[in-house]
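Researcher: Watch the backbone:
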Amino acid sequence: MAFRHSGHKSYLTSTMTDRFDCYYCRDNLHGKKYVMKEEKHVCTKCFNKLCANTCAECKRPIGADAKELHHKNRHWHEDCFRCAKCYKPLASEPFNARDDGKIMCGKCGSREDGNRCQGCYKVVLPGSKNVEYKNKVWHEECFTCFDCKQPIGSQSFLTKGEDIYCAPCHDRKFAKKCFHCKQPISSGGISYQDHPWHSECFVCHTCRKSLAGTRFTSHEDHVYCVDCFKADVAKKCNGCKNPITGFGHGTNVVNYEGFSWHEYCFNCKKCSLSLASKRFVINGDHIYCPDCAKKV
């Protein structure tokens, strides 16, 4: 239940013009500030020492010059009257007085009470439409997206920290964007070269076939299936005339004056000696080892 404190408690203080003595120390109060306590004249020093109420929070006396708040026979310095959870000052705010003696603001108090709506902090009446999530409850109309503020109702939702989002707002704010279409990736997807892709966007540049779960290669920022890369992009071996793909057997390539060979095709035309990393002689369209070249 929310309360307002009983207000600032003050004592009658005045300055004596005729002789009066402090009830406790008998000091002459003429011309001095004093406090009326239960119809007794008390100097401020004795009041602070003998009569002041003890702050329920800091356990120190609440002096004559301090602002005091009180509720149900408990007393606080004005600055000590704060929410036990978030420490928000409550001198001018509604508050909840807990059974365990703690004072809380309305927001924190509602979070402690399972039957209070986490949106409006009002009681959720039995039988009313409500939403329960992680042991917390909301009125149905209070269970709204943190971003667009629209009721979520029966839609799916996602969380970020303690905030709740409808799926479109969560995707727009937090989901990864597809490298190809720039739209959010709500689930699944593929990562290639540190970029996220929708599975349906990760396709061969030529034939548009999906590359998810298949072998592929890239060339000049485009991706290709193996067949299209062989047919349209790959260099042709000057020896066997087949595409040099980098797939399967013989991934190493020999390049010379604009021509390319599979490493296993770079052999002497006459003796079939492999000439990779060795001296060779070009004669027409053929390559020879130095010994065979002398015989040609």
Notes: The chain has a mean pLDDT of 81. Helices lie at 44-51, 106-112, 167-174, 226-233, 290-293. The two ends are 107 Å apart (CA to CA).
